[in-house]
Write a structure and sequence with these properties.
The structure is a single chain. The protein is of the alpha/beta class. It has three domains: 43 residues, 434 Repressor (Amino-terminal Domain), CATH 1.10.260; 125 residues, Rossmann fold (3-Layer(aba) Sandwich); 128 residues, Response regulator (Rossmann fold, 3-Layer(aba) Sandwich). The protein starts with a helix and ends in an 11-residue tail after the last strand.
Amino acid sequence: MEDVAREAGVSGQTVSRVVNARGYVGAATRERVEAAMQRLGYRPNSAARALRSGRFRTIGVVMFSFSSYGNQRTLDAIAVRAAQLGYALTLIPVESSARDTVAGAFRRLEEHAVDGIIIVIEAHQLDEADVEIPDALPVVFVDSNRTVEHPFVDTDQAQGARLATEHLLDLGHDTVWHVAGPERSYSAERRREAWQATLESRGLQVPGALVGDWSAQSGYAAGLRLREVDGVTAVFAANDQMAIGVLRAFREIGRDVPGDVSIVGFDGLPDAAQLWPPLTTVQQHPERVGALAVDALLAELDSGERRHTPLVGTELVVRGSTAPPRRR
């Protein structure tokens, strides 16, 4: 830094302000310092800065699955928000929710000297693993309310499922069948419970839910079963990919969508609008969830306050896959 100060003709304090982005430095002076840093090949020592500030400017992320659309978008949002605030990410993917696997991820993050951890693992998976969450660092859960001890950020799963079910009922369908996500999934459980509660609140028949694994193939398998059931006119699938599979199952035997059966998905996949017919879906906002998770983590880091954020709302996007039922 002394070399840079001499090269730029400024004080060491001015160089420090530029390097640490603290205090006012005029634009011309800043450009002169940055040009001197470039000429001399100077790079700030992050370890030394961490010792001075007590911050490593790094956030750890533990994530179980990259296969789901929501997780991909959430991770992208976490990375973008962290970068905006001057933080880098250390990502530890885990192949299973086994206790040793998840505990190992926490140990690795502590070794990487992170300031806090964001955990994107289904609640049931963590419960079954019986993992002890480290108390030495701020921790925020995403898409899970496993514990009230730590902040969590989540989509309002129940609101989204209620919107989908009410939409089909308001069109005049007698009941709504449901293709649910995996039984161990927190998100799938909340969507299934809200679907059932909505039907019960109107005094309607609650058909048995069919369970898939989030894939279009499992949705197709559920659709094969549903098309053999007499009187199925409305289906709510717990994600768009399974809804696509249901759509295929009905269309390949000549059942018209939405004339014979209406279908609603959940997620808001961009390509859902390009299907035929375009898919009615519940739009969730993983970009908001990811950004709020970073903000909650840094709030605890800055003040020690554990900020419990409100659930992130959803919207129903009505397209061509839903319509009133045909009356015979």
